[in-house]
Write a structure and sequence with these properties.
Number of helices: 14
Largest sheet: none
Oligomer: single chain
Shape: elongated
Structural class: mainly alpha
Number of domains: 2
C-alpha cells in the first residue's frame, strides 16, 4: 500500500518537476509570480514518496536503516523547491538540472528497484543519489543563512556610517552656529545647544548657562515662550540649581502642552511612536517634584491624557505617581 501511494505521488510530481527543470523557454523570474508556490507542492509530493519508499516500502523490507532517509528529507525538499527555480530563472544551469535528475532517479530506484527484485546495492545507490541532493539542499540553506547574516551586518554597518556622517555634519553646523552668537547671548540662543553633538560645545554651553546670574528668572520666562521645549531636557538632566521655583511656569507649560498633544494623540493610530516626544514633559516634572516643586495638577491632566494609549502605559503610570505626589 505504501509503495502504491508513493508511486501515485511520485509520478505526477516528478514529471512536472522535470518539465520545470528542463524548460523549452525561460519562465522566471519575470514568469510566474511566486514560482516557489508551484515547485513546493511538487517537491513535497516527491519527498513524501521518497519517505514512504525508504521507511515503509522496499528499502525497509530489505533491512536498510531508516535514519538516512529521515536525515535526507528536509534537504531533499529544499533542493527540489529551489533547483528548478534556478534552472528556469538562469536558463539551463547544468548542475541544477543534474541535481533534480539525480533526486528523481534516486527516488525512482528506491520506489521500484526492490519490487523488481533488484539487488540491495542498487536500492542503496538510489538512496545515495537522493542523499547527495539533500546535502546540496542543506548547502543552499547554509549559503542563504550566511548571506542573510552578512546582509544584516552590512545594513548595521551602513546605518552606523550614516549616523556617524550625520553627527559629524551636525556637529560642524552647530559649531558654526555657536561661533555666530553675540558676546552676551540670550538664554533662548544658548538653549538651542544644550544637546549638541559636539562634547566640547555642549560642555561650554552648559557652563555659560550656569554662569548666568539671573538664570532662574530667565528660565521661568523661557518656559512661557516657543523655546520652552528646548529647555525641558536641560531642566530634567542638567539644570544646576533647584528647579522648585520653576514649578509654576512649568505647570502652565505642561497644561498647555497637554491640550495640544490631546488632538495629536486622538488622531494618531500608533501613540507609542510619540513616546520620546512626550517623555521629556514627564521627566521635567519628575525633576521638579524631586526638588520639592508642586506639579500634581498638570500631572493629573497628563495621566488622564495618557490613560489607555497603547505603548504609553509606562509614562501614564509615572504621571499618575506625580499626580498623587508620590
Amino acid at each position: 500500500m505504501a509503495d502504491l501511494i508513493a508511486s501515485l505521488l511520485f509520478v505526477p510530481g516528478g514529471a512536472l518537476l522535470a518539465l520545470l527543470t528542463f524548460p523549452q523557454k525561460r519562465w522566471g523570474p519575470e514568469g510566474p509570480v511566486g514560482a516557489h508556490m508551484i515547485t513546493a507542492p511538487l517537491a513535497l509530493a516527491v519527498t513524501v514518496a521518497f519517505a514512504l519508499g525508504g521507511l515503509a516500502g522496499g528499502l525497509a523490507q530489505m533491512g536498510v536503516p531508516g535514519w538516512p532517509t529521515v536525515a535526507a528529507l528536509p534537504g531533499t525538499f529544499v533542493a527540489l523547491v529551489l533547483l528548478p527555480l534556478i534552472t528556469s530563472a538562469r536558463r539551463q544551469v547544468p548542475w541544477a538540472q543534474l541535481g533534480v535528475a539525480a533526486a528523481l532517479l534516486g527516488t525512482a530506484i528506491v520506489l521500484w528497484a526492490p519490487a523488481a527484485g533488484a539487488p540491495r546495492a542498487l536500492a542503496c545507490t538510489g538512496l545515495g543519489l537522493v542523499a547527495a541532493v539533500a546535502a546540496a539542499g542543506y548547502g543552499m540553506l547554509l549559503v542563504f543563512w550566511v548571506s542573510t547574516v552578512n546582509a544584516r551586518v552590512r545594513a548595521v554597518a551602513d546605518a552606523r556610517e550614516r549616523e556617524a556622517e550625520f553627527r559629524s555634519s551636525q556637529s560642524q553646523w552647530q559649531r558654526d552656529e555657536w561661533a555666530k552668537l553675540p558676546p552676551n547671548p540670550e538664554l533662548w540662543q544658548l538653549i538651542q545647544f544644550v544637546g549638541g553633538f559636539d562634547d566640547d560645545l555642549r560642555r561650554e554651553c552648559h557652563a555659560r548657562i550656569a554662569a548666568l546670574p539671573d538664570l532662574e528668572a530667565r528660565m521661568a520666562a523661557l518656559l512661557g515662550t516657543g523655546w520652552a521645549e528646548h529647555a525641558l531636557r536641560y531642566l530634567a538632566d542638567v539644570y544646576p540649581r533647584s528647579t522648585a521655583p520653576l514649578a509654576a511656569p512649568l505647570a502652565a507649560l505642561l497644561l498647555a502642552e497637554c491640550e495640544r498633544w490631546r488632538s495629536t494623540l486622538d488622531h494618531q493610530g500608533e501613540p507609542a511612536s510619540w513616546w520620546a516626544n512626550l517623555a521629556k514633559f514627564v521627566e521635567a516634572a519628575e525633576r521638579v517634584a524631586r526638588d520639592g516643586g508642586d506639579v500634581q495638577r498638570p500631572m493629573r491632566a497628563w495621566a488622564e491624557l495618557l490613560r489607555g494609549r497603547r505603548g504609553l502605559e509606562s509614562l501614564q503610570q509615572r504621571a499618575e505617581q506625580l499626580a498623587r505626589g508620590a
